[in-house]
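Good morning C.,

I know you're traveling, so I'll keep this short. The sequence:
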Amino acid sequence: MSQRQIVQVFEQYQKSRMQFVQTVADLAARPQNIEILRNAGVMSMLRPLLLDVVPSVQQTAALALGRLADHSDDLAEAVVKEDILPQLVQSLASQNRFYKKAAAFVLRAVAKHSPELSQAVVACGGVDALVLCLEEFDPGVKEAATWALGYIARHNALLSQSVVDAGAVPLLVLCLLEPEIALKRIAASTLSDISKHTPELAQTVVDTGAIAHLAQMILNPDAKLKVGTA
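The tokens, ready to paste straight into the viewer:
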């Protein structure tokens, strides 16, 4: 077998992995396919692909997992039981912006279902990793992280406090100053999710100077932005 033929074997393997994760991600976007994918053991197949040597395979595997977890609490629990969360969190610090957005989506998709699943995200260091993403230059990464933090904080005061303790609030206030309307809106919503549980949490948000920025946003002509600050 020639060198070229040997190389082609590896190229074909890479193409097959990419085709697999892309197809699964597409299938996972349709609710009628979810149970079939689960019964086929898709979670355990996607997990090793999060560590693939090809970044696009990693990112698409994370996207597929996020879509699956987003569908139901059972599938979100499967992500936790497969020990996928620590793997995602560990990779967040070193990967590119596309992976970070996909990983934040998975954390959000898991956290949204219940306080218990949100606590699983907290326990594996997910909140700290998401707060680091708020310091990224890319607004899409900030938006994905902000959204995930909001889903964690909205459940109860204890989870909100974990978001506060990780240093999220000052960075969320900075997001209010960004030019992107979507980021402003989600940051305002997340600050609301943090502050709604107790007077003490509300005071934490007030102490960062958030109110002045939120008041300015209410004057913005964008209707969706006004809804986020209401």
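Safe travels,
E.
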